[in-house]
């Protein structure tokens, strides 16, 4: 059984660079349900643009809280 969490993420280009270069190893967000969720920063790399990251995302976790997928839903 998978669990999903929706959250907004906004990172400037400079913040994205720090994550991309490995300065930060994880991302912590607050889901729309109010829950705090942390996941490896490497999973945001495919969403980085020249303007950084901005949008609504959905994180999928497996039953054991293992990362399954990250999807961008909208800007």
From TrEMBL:
Pfam short name (any one): DUF2835
Domain of life: Bacteria
Protein's UniProt name: DUF2835 domain-containing protein
Organism: Psychrosphaera saromensis
